[in-house]
Amino acid sequence: MSEFSGRSAQSPAAEDPDLARARQGDGAAFTRLLAPLRRELHAHCYRMLGSTHDADDALQDGMLRAWRGLARFEGRSSLRSWLYTVVTRTCLDALETRDKRAMPVDLSPSSDRAVVSDAPLTDVAWLGPYADAGLAGGPAGPDARYEQREAVELAFVAALQHLPGNQRAALLLFEVLGFTPAEIAATMNTSVASVHSALQRARAIAAQRIPSPTQQQTLRKIDDARVREIVADYSSALERGDADALVALLTEDVTWSMPPLPGWYHGLAAVTDFAVRVPLTGCGSWRHVPISANGQPAIAAYLRRDEAASTYDRWAINVLTLREERIVEITSFIGSEHFEPFGLPVSLT
């Protein structure tokens, strides 16, 4: 079945005047049709690929495919479900030539002590952070199991990287978007039996790797003001070099990882040793901007290595994972390339 036929078990939407214009080659009409769906389609590409940059490319490629095939869209399904079919197949094509996205925990055991000489691994495809501004918080469909923001949480996206492409797509289409097995089979050019098999295997792996409760569930139990306070206290502790204040925010089994550095730390003793020897005393001065990333509280960290310098430069996006009111995981995505999707400045004074 062609991806441009638009056949689906979902009920078709009422004919949109812009759809008729777009079929006749009106690019502005196509842009208007796409505008309300672009954010969620981009998030879907990120879930599939684990990288904002790859998601940008896949969405652009997918929308080009949709534009070229729009004249053959029969309208037997909603435009939304048809576009999800197009971008899902685009992502599956991309996965055939790309390595899965990794986290440091996937590559080596944790370190007991700070590894001061840790060097970046440039030959690894690393999972990246996601700028979630504007992403809806509720379910994407009435039959979806996961909320849209739950499905961009770090643990969720990291778990997806351990699934083959077909299982990853099936899980997302079923659990996040609420597609039926028949619709998924049509999207992936396979049988319903194959979809059920892929879902069964994907759920087994996801159950082992996706923690419960999710971060969205945890955050709903914590007052928003308290979450902001935790973020502010974390930032202040780093900026003041206050180890005791930082440790007071952490759980006993806290982890800290810093892709693209391969080393990572597990447990309060190891994390404290790393924090004291590296970010608190061995880097320079810090300034922080509170943000949201992957549906979680996060901080954009700016570093001034030379005290004589007048600016703090982009260093890392720190994503915090909370358990109750303490930090159970810090993931520092090092690299200035992560800042642009968040609309953050190049430097701070």
UniProtKB/TrEMBL annotation:
Coiled coil: none annotated. Residues 1-22 are annotated as: Disordered. The keyword Zinc does not apply. Keywords: Sigma factor, Transcription, Transcription regulation. Residues 155-204 form the RNA polymerase sigma factor 70 region 4 type domain. The keyword Transcription regulation applies. One of its GO terms (molecular function) is DNA binding. Residues 231-330 form the SnoaL-like domain. GO terms for biological process: DNA-templated transcription initiation. Gene3D superfamilies: 1.10.1740.10, 3.10.450.50, Winged helix-like DNA-binding domain superfamily/Winged helix DNA-binding domain. Residues 1-11 have a biased composition (Polar residues). Residues 37-100 form the RNA polymerase sigma-70 region domain. PANTHER family: ECF RNA POLYMERASE SIGMA FACTOR SIGG, RNA POLYMERASE ECF-TYPE SIGMA FACTO. Belongs to the sigma-70 factor family. ECF subfamily. Interacts transiently with the RNA polymerase catalytic core formed by RpoA, RpoB, RpoC and RpoZ (2 alpha, 1 beta, 1 beta' and 1 omega subunit) to form the RNA polymerase holoenzyme that can initiate transcription. This is RNA polymerase sigma-70 factor (ECF subfamily). It comes from Actinopolymorpha pittospori.
